[in-house]
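Page 42, continued from yesterday. The earlier attempt failed because a stray header line got pasted into the input along with the sequence. Redoing it now with the clean sequence only.
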Amino acid sequence: MERTRWTDELIDERMQAIDEKFDRLFTELLTLRQEMHAGFSELRAEMVAFHRQVTLIVAGLAVALIGLLGAIVAQG
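This time it went through. C-alpha cells are written below.
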C-alpha cells in the first residue's frame, strides 16, 4: 500500500479547495440571511396592517355599543 506524501504543493491545493468551499458556504449563508430578512420585513408589514384592521373593528364595535347604550338610556 503506497502512502501519499504531503508536499507543500499538495497541502496548498487542498487548502485552496477548502477555502473555496467555505467561500461558497458563506455566500449561501449570506443569501439565505438576506432572503429571511426580506421575508420577515414583509411579515412585519402584514402584521402591522392586520393590527390596524383589528383596531378599527374594535373601535367601531365600541362606538356601536356606546350608541346602543345611549339609545337604551334615552328610551328608559
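Notes: The chain has a mean pLDDT of 94.
Reminder to self: strip header lines before submitting.
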